[in-house]
Amino acid sequence: MKTEISKIIILFVFSLSLLISIPLTGASYSFEGIPLTPDAQGTFQGEVYIDGGHGLAFPPYSENFSVPDGTVRWARLYIGVWGGTENYEGWVQPEFNGQKLEQLPLAGVNDESKNVYCAGHGVYWVSYDVSNIAKTGENIVNVLTSKGEPGNKLDGRVYGAVLAAGCENEKAPTVSYQLLSGNVNLHGKGWSGTLASSNDVTKVNFSCGQVLSSKDTANLSVVYLTGSKGLPDYLEFNGKMLGTSPQNLSEKYGEKVRDIADETSNDASGGEGSSSRYFDIENFDVLDYLQTNNSAAFVRGIDLDGDGEIDDQEGEDYLHPVLAALVLSSKDTESVLPDLYPEMNVSENELVDGTPAKVSFTINNPGGICDRNCTMSFRIDGNEVSTFPIQMTASGVYSSSFSWPAVKGKHLLELSVNPENSIKESNKKNNACALNVNVKSKPELSVSLGDPVKIETKNEAASSSIIFLSFISILGSRRKKSILLLLLAVLLIMALSGCVEESHATEKTAYSIPVKIINNGEASARNFDVNISLDGKSVTVLNIPEIEGQKEIVNDIRIETLSGEHTLKAKVDEHNHIIESDEDNNEFEASRNFT
């Protein structure tokens, strides 16, 4: 046991030496979307500013913001871009307050850029940290995309731009807030009705306000992309329906119908609002609905006519909630201490023996502002293997990851923040988190080929029918003494028996061959190829999206060849994309008789 622990510690210490060089990874494309997660949170005296607009338009695209008085402690700029499809690629680059920000690639299905969320059919939600550039008073952003660039296919129009900022002001009330950002694709069966399933609801939970002794105001802010006027959608807060019923829909569906994302911003609570094509930003007073634990639900549509389905007039075709923020305020200005707590996760796909597993973690601070260095401690099975420093930010959210060389078996991973108590906190009991993981053995792939089975073609089926008809003709000729029918039957039989011509002797025949792929390892193997060759020549390649551990799959392939003896060969994962426990059993070769 000591040897095993030592092995883990040595490997892990080596990997942690690279910790500083491991960047935050980007968000991979997902058709269903990326869940909304915290971008900022905390408690301080001041104001949380969230505003923007103004609807789909061509670049260059400008938007102005008026940030309230105080000291800007953090700020994030958000930009929505329409790609046209998820298969087009391009870029976006804003200039904020005269300073050019990073040009970020918009890569659709291939997207892995930091702070780029792509979902659905190429809907992008991009964010930038502008904490050091934002200022009180007037701020302006000018957005360029690759639209118009030679060879560019990306649509490149901009849905809108949003600025969120935390402004500290000792003369203002205390605010406690949490801002979440992501890009969820709520959808029905698609414009063509061909999608396998719908995605009708997404829910978010808020963690803020616990330290406030009283709450005087509560405001919920939300941002949508792709919403359409005239198609109902709904927003619930703690189970209560928000907004008012629009007249154009209430006449048909009654007062329960809503259209929050109606291409008019700031109108969902009854105001006039402003036109904003395929973009909506809304604010709601939710003070009367507050609970100890608060949540909001974005609902694409509701079955209004009771037929069991949400048809294309009862809900949005596509709707992308991209931002939700709950901001509570209190006249109580008593200072609040920080409250640091960690969260940790690792994908099950990463937990394979001997391979680096990415451990992602977030340090949250819903308490008072803390922008100091503190220490993280990581333990495996009760043994501390490393400590490392992190720099907390005023936004109250610090996210990163490190690599752990996983070792087969069950392990307890523990992560703690501020173990030395260098930062005074309101709650020390939540400074650690734990995760039980099971590291599986590597995949072990093997392949085999079954016996070929002749595929009867339509021509052969037709030939059988002709032979049958020929005999009928002969019988008919005996009854009716018809010389013409007799001659026709004889000619047909001669043709099919090869007496007329022998061209069929060299024709290839189609065969079906079962290909069995087995994974004797514990971990799944994903996205690999199986190459099939006949007499030394490649005839087909099978792509296998996934085969789970301890499972087997059988796929039938079609091969056309001459009858007789042939050599079949199969090789699984020829280019070694899958790290296996045994690479020596990936080939199969045998002679087979094709009859």
UniProtKB/TrEMBL annotation:
InterPro entries documented for this protein: CARDB, DUF3344, Ig-like_fold
Record-annotated CARDB domain positions: 338-433, 497-589
Domain named DUF3344: residues: 31-328
Gene3D superfamilies: Immunoglobulins
Database matches in Pfam families: CARDB, DUF3344
Protein name from the UniProt record: Cell surface protein
